[in-house]
């Protein structure tokens, strides 16, 4: 696992998580010329049949002011595939893996696209 991703997640989640958060979504953004960014939001809803659950944001845990940025010359689907792999590894042995998995679901995707579900309870 990429240590900078792991360190970023650890930093973002090192706080009190509201009890009303039922799911987590890692939102990806295409910046420009091979630049990508990611934020983490907590949502009040999770539904495998309705991807709009990720729009029911309660908090961004301050991640919008502290985006994870990376450079990668690729298409959007390759950037998503890369982050699915990295986040899946974090869910296996990251510092806050159990916290993430304690909620109803964890997803990742571009804000204007489909969400890949990484974990459900």
In words, what does this structure look like?
The chain has 121 residues and is α+β, with helices and mostly antiparallel strands. It contains three helices and six strands. Strands 1, 2, 3, 4, 5 and 6 form a six-stranded mixed sheet that branches. The longest helix is centred in the C-terminal third of the chain and has 18 residues.
List keywords for this structure.
alpha+beta; 3 helices; 121 residues; six-stranded mixed sheet; globular
User: Runs with pLDDT <50, length 5+?
Assistant: none
Q: Give the helix tally.
A: 3
Q: Main beta sheet: strand number and arrangement?
A: 6 strands, mixed
Give average pLDDT, whole number. 95
Query: Would you list the SSEs in sequence order as H and E?
Result: HEEEEHHEE
Radius of gyration: 13 Å
Q: Got a strand count?
A: 6
End-to-end Cα distance:
23 Å
The total number of structural domains is 1
Shape: globular
* Helix fraction bin: 25-40%
Summing up helix and strand content along with how strands pair, one would put the structural category as alpha+beta
Tell me the strand percentage band. Answer: 25-35%
Topology:
Blueprint: H1 3-13, E1 23-30, E2 35-43, E3 57-59, E4 68-71, H2 76-93, H3 97-101, E5 105-110, E6 115-120
Parallel strand pairs: 1-5
Antiparallel strand pairs: 1-2, 2-3, 2-4, 5-6
In short:
This protein has 121 residues and is of the alpha+beta class. 28% of the residues lie in helices and 30% in strands.
């Amino acid at each position: 696992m990429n240590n900078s991703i792991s360190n970023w997640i650890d930093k973002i989640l090192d706080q009190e998580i509201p009890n009303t958060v039922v799911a987590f979504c890692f939102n990806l953004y295409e910046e420009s010329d091979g630049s990508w960014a990611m934020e983490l939001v907590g949502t009040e809803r999770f539904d495998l049949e309705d991807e709009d659950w990720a729009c029911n944001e309660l908090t961004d845990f301050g991640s919008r002011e502290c985006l994870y940025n990376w450079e990668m010359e690729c298409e959007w689907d390759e950037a998503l595939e890369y982050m699915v792999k990295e986040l899946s590894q974090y869910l296996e042995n990251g510092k806050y893996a159990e916290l993430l998995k304690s909620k109803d679901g964890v997803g990742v995707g571009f804000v204007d696209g489909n969400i890949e579900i990484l974990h459900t309870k």
